[in-house]
Design brief:
By secondary structure, the protein is an all-alpha fold. The protein is 83% helix and 0% strand.
Length: 222
Amino acid sequence: MFQSFIDTMISGGRWQLIFQGLGITLLIAVFAILIGTVLGCIFALMKVSENKLLKWIAELYTTVLRGIPLATQLMIFYFVIFAPLGMNRLVVAILAYGINSGAYCTEIFRAGIQGIDIGQTEAGRSLGLTKQQTLFKIILPQAVKAVLPTYTSEFIVLIKETSVASFIAVMDLTKAGDMIRNATYNAWIPLLTCAVIYLILTVGLTKLFARFEKRMAKSDRS
C-alpha cells in the first residue's frame, strides 16, 4: 500500500497538485465568506427595515439563491453571465460562492437581529437614541455574538462546497485529486487523500471556532 501511495502521489511531483488545489479551495472560501458577510449584512438590514420595496428585494435575493443548487448557480454565473466577458474562472467561482453565501448570511444575521429582545430596542429609544443608533449600538453587537456559531458553520460548509468548483474547471482540491486519478488510474489514494484533508480542515476549524466561542462567553461573564 505504501508503495502504491509513493507511485501515485510522490512520483512526478503529483503531491504538489494537492497543495495547489488546497490553496485554491481556501482562497475561494475566504474571499467568498468576506463577500457573503458584506452582502448578508446589507440584505439582513433590508429585511428588517420598514421599507416594503427593500424587504421584497431582500426576500427575492434569498429565495432565489437558496432555492437553486449551488452547482447550477456556478455554471450559470460562468457559462451564461461571465464567460462572454472573458472573466477568469477563479474570480467567477469566488463571486458565485460569495453571492450564494450572502443569501445564507442574510438569514443568519436577520435571525440574530430579530432574536434580540424587543426590550433592548425600547431601552435604547428611552435613552434618546434614534432607531439607527439603537440598531448599531445596542442590537447589532448582541446579534453578532448570538449568530457567531451559525456563522462559523456557514464558513465550514462553504469550504466543503468549493468541491463543485471543478464544474467550471477551477483546480480546487477535489479537481486536483481527480487529475491525479486520471493520470495514474488509481482512484482510491488521491480521492481518499482529498477526503482526509477536507475532514482535517472541517474538524480543525470546528474545534478552533468552539474555543473562540468559549473565550467570548467567558469574557461576557467576567
